């Protein structure tokens, strides 16, 4: 229940409904007709996503980081979600097939069994008619047995959540600079040797089982990345 409330609060913040501060716990309890404990757990999820600041004795204030850039990716929420009202991305499918883990260098680094079968989706993604990224995504077929071709242009995470009730519980994110080789440079219509920011991501379900990993090379101008870190007091 608290996950659903947290999602509603996230959507409300991103839609601008709460621009400076969340309602009080009492007001939220009345709105959602749940206990204080449920509201606190929901707020904690939103806080972990980096969209709130706690001020002792005053409440929860909304971080205005989403207003600082027209293209900000919040890695605390997930690389597929922008803090800006970006609108949908358009996709050009390069590859959609099934492969074995032994064929994929990233899978080998993750020490997945060589015979594990994976869905492979490689696509170019566009925003406002400009190339946004080259995305190479893999889903374990024993967890996600079917992916419809009808959803390849849309959010694969949304499809997996709606179809299999799988939602990323945690992820490992690795940012690095990638120097494009001839193949990727040709796909992206860029010069070989171009250096671009790349995100490698491993996504886990709630039982700490990997269901997806990906590598995304970003090239959209003016793109920012945001990550929220809560520091524990040593006192």
From TrEMBL:
Alphabetized Pfam families for the sequence: GntR, UTRA
InterPro entries: Bact_HTH_transcr_reg, Chorismate_lyase_/UTRA_dom_sf, Tscrpt_reg_HTH_GntR, UTRA, WH-like_DNA-bd_sf, WH_DNA-bd_sf
Keyword list, A-Z: DNA-binding, Transcription, Transcription regulation
HTH gntR-type domain: residues covered: 1-65
Organism, as annotated: Lacticaseibacillus suilingensis
Protein's name in the database: GntR family transcriptional regulator
Record SMART domains: HTH_GNTR, UTRA
Top-level division of the source organism's lineage: Bacteria
């Amino acid at each position: 229940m608290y996950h659903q409330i947290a999602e509603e609060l996230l959507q409300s913040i991103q839609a601008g409904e709460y621009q400076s501060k969340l309602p009080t716990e009492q007001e939220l309890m009345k709105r959602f007709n749940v206990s204080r404990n449920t509201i606190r757990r929901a707020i904690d999820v939103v806080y972990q996503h980096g969209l709130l600041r706690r001020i002792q004795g005053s409440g929860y204030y909304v971080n205005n980081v989403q207003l600082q850039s027209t293209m900000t990716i919040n890695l605390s929420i997930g690389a597929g979600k922008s803090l800006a009202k970006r609108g949908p991305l358009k996709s050009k499918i390069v590859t959609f097939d099934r492969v074995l883990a032994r064929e994929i260098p990233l899978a080998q680094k993750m020490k997945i069994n060589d015979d594990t079968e994976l869905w492979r989706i490689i696509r170019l993604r566009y925003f406002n008619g400009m190339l946004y990224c080259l995305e190479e995504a893999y889903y374990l077929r024993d967890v996600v047995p079917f992916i419809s071709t009808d959803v390849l242009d849309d959010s694969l995470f949304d499809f997996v959540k709606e179809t299999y009730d799988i939602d990323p519980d945690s992820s490992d994110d690795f940012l690095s600079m990638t120097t494009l080789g001839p193949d990727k440079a040709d796909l992206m219509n860029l010069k070989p040797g171009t250096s671009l920011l790349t995100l490698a991501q491993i996504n886990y379900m709630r039982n700490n089982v990997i269901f997806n990993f990906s590598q995304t090379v970003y090239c959209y101008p003016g793109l920012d990345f945001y990550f929220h870190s809560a520091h524990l007091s040593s006192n």
